């Protein structure tokens, strides 16, 4: 038996008979396991190329099987990079990533496979394929062309070198952000430094001081308190910390993350922008944005520009009023002098919101313990989509004790899907933000033993405030919205009814439509029955009082113009960098950010602002020339929720009927049909931005 074949049989990372064996997988399994898998897949692929059968079963299904095996095992490695990061894992990932990219390019650039795909499209079988199958073949042809299948000689070699380098740079970018975030902390030792901070922050900061700061006697009342750049620490401090000097220090540290020394991402940004532009040129596109949009719902850059400009125009005056009102409130307080700075705005915006709507975020937290929120969220999904959820903790291995495992069944109790949920922040090993990813997707080809179809399983990852002592995680409203958002992504992955693995769930869905289900779910956070249903005071069990709900709903549009402009700054900067910016010119990426901010920010960035150095969405994720997708899809999601409003949110039967319709179209059809068709199948017409502007209070 060869070493490779032995590795394939004994390495738990390669065991595809069930869910990943997180109890057995170790870093030492990564390099030999992935290398052995690549060796076997290369042999299978060569055999496929040597005897191409241009048919669905002869070509598409074998490609799905091979792609799925690599996606499964390498996906576990990528998942652990996000939730259980370590130096050893990074080294293993860095060693194998070039080989994985090379295999992907090898398959994508196969002339034999490309000819086989074209033969399917041009042959007699084409007419016998259903619409989903035809769409899959068409996308595979397009992806082959975008992988450089038409390139030869030096152009092909250069394209491959660029692809490998971009992958490596993206990983390094993400690691630098994680290390820079992890590397900053302040130990606050006096009441003056912690003045204004709520009890929940003090408890978390004292716990952090005990666990990470070598302060075993730290208490919420007396400190010391450990302040970090992790969201559960950063955001409350900027909103409540009275010590202005510390707010400034924290803000400056946040906007300059990963911008100095060995962790400086600025050179990586410059390199990536040049490489992306060169890659686009090799494929015959004028800019990387044009390459990116050729795979998306938006027809062209002009369509994106038009939407973002319409939203900017609707938001700018409102954002200016926001800042004027916050400044006036700070001036009237007698506790602030002069113009507001960046580190003042969150603090005084929170004071104005408390005064205007008569509640504080800290007043809400006790009503939203995580177990109750999760229970209520699952109950909502049950009512809307006629599915059931069953906690199954302990039935499968997990990567951390905090992780929950939940099974999903239909109304008759038949299994439909499952998901892992990793809810809490762990800054020492877990990257920031929140995301949904595939563990396995639905497929009739890639099945486990005894199955007729493999059911989908999702990873849902958040970074909310962790429990403190014996008290459960008490969630902020933003953390609740984030959980609903990621759960929406998970629903599209889990409730798909498409059996073709290459178009099931979120696969094959255009990137600017993939946020539709996630942003749709956020709207339910402002629905009275839903919010009351997910609430229950962690001590008394009392639901959220009606008056507090009315204040939350009234505050929904608070600073909507400012928040809209912030997203537009990111989206327009991204599009400018990947379309009109010359990466070889005299202007830097940071110059572009400042130039765009002149039109999209009422308070201009500081000269040293290096936010782009931590903008992982476009430099280490899938949103390059695609960050606009959040707003593009928000138009779709708001319009979709408007259908429920028109049916009557208080009419349970009408809501249930609309929920089934949403499930049977948006959630069920996945990437089997173009998203415009899927949306129209649900809504009965194309989308308009009217509902989005109305929900944000920005309508005329």
Q: Structural class, judged by helices and strands? A: alpha+beta
- CATH architecture descriptor text of the largest domain: Orthogonal Bundle
Strand tally is 7
Sequence of strands across the biggest β-sheet: 3-4-5-7-6
CATH class of the largest domain reads Mainly Alpha
Approximately how much beta-strand content do the residues carry?
Answer: 5-15%
Distance between the termini: 73 Å
- In CATH, the topology of the largest domain is named Neurolysin, domain 3
Unreliable segments of 5+ consecutive residues: none
Mind sketching the topology for me?
Elements: H1 3-10, H2 30-50, H3 56-83, H4 87-108, H5 111-122, H6 131-146, H7 153-183, E1 185-188, H8 191-194, H9 199-212, E2 225-228, H10 231-240, H11 244-255, H12 266-282, H13 288-293, H14 301-333, H15 345-357, H16 361-364, H17 370-385, E3 387-391, E4 404-410, E5 415-424, E6 435-440, E7 457-464, H18 477-494, H19 516-522, H20 528-533, H21 546-554, H22 560-579, H23 589-600, H24 616-619, H25 629-647, H26 652-669, H27 675-683, H28 690-695
Parallel strand pairs: 5-7
Antiparallel strand pairs: 1-2, 3-4, 4-5, 6-7
Q: What can you tell me about this protein's structure?
A:
- The protein folds into 4 domains: 3-150, Neurolysin, domain 3, CATH 1.10.1370; 184-257, no CATH class; 262-358 and 560-627, Orthogonal Bundle (Neurolysin, domain 3), CATH 1.10.1370; 365-557, Neurolysin, domain 3, CATH 1.10.1370.40.
- Helices cover 56% and strands 6% of the residues.
- The chain has 28 helices and 7 strands.
- Strands 3-4-5-7-6 form a 5-stranded mixed beta sheet, with helices on both faces. The protein has a two-stranded antiparallel ribbon with strand order 1-2.
- Helix 10 packs across helix 15.
- The chain is globular, with a radius of gyration of 25 Å.
- The model has no long low-confidence stretch (mean pLDDT 96).
